Amino acid sequence: MTKPNPFRYFKTSREIIRLAVMLYVRFPLSLRNVEGLLHERGIDVSHEAVRYRWHRFGPMFASEIPKRRIEGMKSSRWRWHLDEMFVKINGEQRYLWRAVDHEGEVLESFVTKTRDKKAALKFLKKAMRKHCCAEVFVTDLLRSYGAALKEIGTARRQESGRWLNNRAENSHLPFRRREREMLRFRRMRSLQKFAAVHASVYNHFNQERRLSTRTNFKLNRAAALAEWRGFGAA
C-alpha cells in the first residue's frame, strides 16, 4: 500500500512549505517576518498560511528527523543534563523540563504545572522510555530530581552542583530567543508541541561549529539541508 501524499490538498508546492516551516521553527522569526522573507523571494504567502502550514507539517517533519545516536543512548553510556525553564502561559507560571546530552543535543522536553517530585518523575520516565537510562544525571540543586531518581533507583548516578549544569542552562538560549518572537504561549498544549518540534529541528541543524573545520561544517550543513528537503516525500 502506497503512502498517501501529505501535500495533495495544498496548492503551494512542497518546497515552499518546507522552507516556510524551517524558517519559522529554526530561526527567531515571527509569522509576519517569514511572510516578508518569502515575499522577497517572489512567494506570495500570508502569515496565516504560514501558521497553518507550521501546525500541519511541523510535527510531521520533526518525526522524520533521524534520532541520531539513539542506539548509543540505549547502551547507557551517556551523560544527561536536566533542567527546567519557567514559562508564562496566560500569566500563569508553568515549567518546561528539558534533558540535554553531553554534546548539547536536546533529548526530551516536557511541560508541567508544577516542579515537584511527581512532575520530575513523569519527565524522567518519559525520557527513559525513549533513550533508556543514562550513566550520569547532572542536575541543579532542586530536590525534586533527587526524590524522583531515588524512586527510580538511580539516585547514585546523580551529580548536582551550582555550576555543573551549565550545559543545560546554555541550551535554553535558542528556545528563549524563539519564545520572545512568538510573544509567549497561550496553552500548555501549544508549548509542548512547539518545544518538541523545535528540539528536533535544532538537533538536525546544530552542527557544533566550534568543533569542526570550515570545510566539514559546510559539508554537514549542506547535508542537513538536503535531508530536510526530502522530508514528507511521497
UniProtKB/TrEMBL annotation:
Show the Pfam families listed in the entry. DDE_Tnp_IS240
Transferase as UniProt keyword:
no
Check the record and name the InterPro entries matching this protein.
DDE_dom, IS_Transposase, Transpos_IS6
Q: Where is the DDE domain?
A: 78-207
Which keywords belong to this entry? Answer: DNA recombination, DNA-binding, Transposition
Q: Which organism is it from?
A: Ruegeria meonggei
**Listed name of the protein:** DDE domain-containing protein
Q: Name one process (GO BP) from the record.
A: DNA recombination
